[in-house]
Design goal:
By secondary structure, the chain is of the alpha+beta class. It has two domains: about 1-80, 2-Layer Sandwich (Alpha-Beta Plaits); about 80-150, Alpha-Beta Plaits. It is built from five helices and nine strands.
Length: about 190
Amino acid sequence: MRHVISALVMNEPGVLSLVSGLFSARGFNIDSLVVGRTENPELSRMTVVVDADDNTLEQVRKQLAKLVPVVKVRDFAGTAHIERDLALVTVGVSSGNRSEVIEIVNLFRGKIVDIARNSVIVELSGPEEKVEACIELLEPYGIKELARTGVIAMARGMQTARDEAAERSGAHASAGGKRKRSLDAPSAAALPPS
């Protein structure tokens, strides 16, 4: 099954190799790995896409949550979320087929970001399937170069509200006994100072 995992991590050297090593140690081929800054300069968000069975991936997710530089881990499987992939594609064109390429790009709501005599550079963004479909239609024209960012993902607004409510109700339920750290909620000690 395809899983999109988001990990909020401390922005420090070695975290990328630590996290990717955890997946490779289990024999997972990472389809996509994206790391980028967040609204907090001390944190980065890693988005990892892997194909794996649920049980094994759950073990990896738990191990990932235990790593010191990892603040929060989330698997988007079965939740409402938005995914986007970005691709830049250099397509060979001639005066006879340039308009066909532009029409295909427009149908996929892509953009022509550069035009030369014998090529155009196309910018595509959207769900991975949409990007793949457009690339497949552009292949007969001759793809000269292709660069992709990989998948990034965020929970939809209503999903985030449901998750926060569940975390609050879980915190109230455990208030009588010793509080247990949720895999999806960072402890106050794990967050960087303000």
